[in-house]
Amino acid sequence: MYMTLFGTVIIAAAVGALSEKSGFTRNGYLPSIIICVGGAFLFFFAQILFRRMFGFNLIFGSLGLNAIVSSIGALAIVPTHWRK
User: Fold this and answer.
1) Are 40 and 71 a contacting pair, CB within 8 Å?
2) What is the pLDDT of residues 52-80, one digit of tens each?
3) Is residue 44 within 8 Å of residue 5, measured between CB atoms?
4) Taking a C-beta distance cutoff of 8 angstroms, is the pair 16, 33 a contact?
5) Rounded to an integer, what distance in angstroms lies between the CA atom of residue 45 and that of residue 9?
6) pLDDT value of position 63
7) What residue spans define the domains of the chain?
8) pLDDT tens digits for range 8-35
9) Burial tier of 60 (Cβ tally within 10 Å: 0-12, 13-18, 19+)
């Protein structure tokens, strides 16, 4: 579980940095990375909660794909000061 969480954080940080470099966001590197890691953490722990409490899996395919989708979703949802 810890290695999966570590991999999720690494993938989310890479998505945050790449989204800033590509121009998808204009938040700054650190805020984008923090937003992505927060979204990935939230989805990772919600996935564990749903699986243990309800027996329902929130998996899109692989764990890496889950990290990418949750990071992009967090970047799209979280409003920032600079976004128009």
Assistant:
1) yes
2) 888 887 777 788 888 888 888 888 888 66
3) yes
4) yes
5) 12
6) 80
7) 2-77
8) 999 999 999 999 999 888 888 999 999 9
9) middle
